[in-house]
Amino acid sequence: MISHYHRIFECPLDPAEQGPEFELVLTCCRPKPSEAHFLRQQELAAVGLDTAKVLELGIRHKISPLLHCNLRCHPVGTFSAELLDKLAEQHKRNRYRALQALQATHELLRAGQGLRLIVMKGLDVAARAYGDLAVRHVGDIDILVDPEQLGEAITILKAQGWSLDQPEIFSALNRKILLRSHHDWTLIRKRFPHMELHWRAMHSPFEFPIDDWRSSTLSKKSNLGILGLNNEDLLIYLCLHGAKHKWGRLKWLFDLPNLLDTHDLDWSQLWQRADQLGAGLAVQQGLLMAQQYCGLDLSPAIKSGFGFSISPSSWRAICTFQQDPDLWMEQQTHTDAWVNHILGTRKINILLWYFATIFYPNASDYRLLKLPSWLHMLYFPLRPILWSIRQVQIRQACKLKTMGARPIVPER
Fold first, then answer.
1. pLDDT in tens, 349-376
2. Backbone angles phi, psi at 163, to 5 degrees
3. Domain coordinates of the chain in residue numbers?
C-alpha cells in the first residue's frame, strides 16, 4: 500500500522489476555515463543480458543512439559485438536524420524570415540538453507557427517540396472547423523526416498558450540559431507532452535530467508558470520519475512546488505503457486520451474545452463523411454516429492485430 506521503514525494515504481535489460537502458540516460552508471552497466553485463531485448528496448523507447554512446565506452568484450554494431548503425542513421531535420529547419527559417516560428523539442532539445544532435532520437520535425501566419508557412513549405499528408482536409471548405479541433498538421518531403507544423503547442488552446510572440517566453538558447522556449517553459512543455502519453517512451523522460544537468532554472518562476497552466501535476510526476529512473537529484527548490497526490493506478498505468508503448500508442482510443487529459489537469477552462470536444467535429468526421460547407452544421448532430462507427473500426483493427495481422488502425 502506497502511503499519502509517497504518493506526493516519491515515485513508487521499481525499474528493477522490469528486468536487467530495462535497468541497463536506464543507466544510459545521459550522453556519457556517470561513474555510478558505468559501474552498474558492467555489473549488469557480467550477470548476463538478453542482447536482443536490449536492442528491442532501445528501438521501442527511441533511445538507441544513447545506448550506443554509453555502451561503446566499455572495454571490448563487455557487450556483444553484434549488439554494438546494430546500435552503431542506429546511431549513424539518426545522425543522418538529424542533419536532414536541421537542413529543413534552416531552409524554413531563411525563406520565412517574417514568420514567427518556434522549434519545439527535437533539434532544440538535442542541442541544448545533449550537446549532440545525433544522440537524441530524431522523430518528427516539430515547429510552432503563429496561427495568423499558418497559410503563409504552408505556402513556403510547399515551394520547398513539402506536401500535406491530408491536403483535402486543409483545403476543405470546412477548414475553420477542422483547424479549431486540431493543433498540428503533418507535411511530407522525400528523404526528410516528417514535419509537424503546429499552430497550437498542445491540443487544447488553454494548456500551453503563447499569447505574445515577442515576449520573454521565447529566447535563442541553442547554438544552432534556432528560436526555442526559455528553460522554464521548455521543461513544463516536455512534462506536459510526456504526461499526455503517460511517459510511455523513455526518450521523453530522459530529456528532463539532461536539461537540468546543463541549464539552471528559476524554480519559483517555473512553479508559478506551471500553476497558471495547470501543469503542476505533470511537472511533479516527471521530476519524480527522473529521480527514480535517472538518479536526478531533487533540490529543496525543485521540491518546493510539489503538492499533488498521484494515485497508485496512475503509476501502474505508466508502468504498463513503458512495457509496451507502441501497442498503447496504436490502440489507445480517443476516450482514453480524453480521460488522461481530464485526470491530468486542475484548470476549469481546460476541462471545459475537453468536454466540448466530445461534441465538436474534427478531421476524422470529415474523412468519414465529406459534406459541403453549406451542410457543415450537420457534423454536430452526426458526430455521435460518426464517432461510434470509428470506434467499431478501431476495435476491429485491434482484433485483427491480436490475431497476427498488421492492419492500419483508423484514426480517432
1. 777 877 777 788 888 888 888 887 788 8
2. -130, 145
3. 361-412
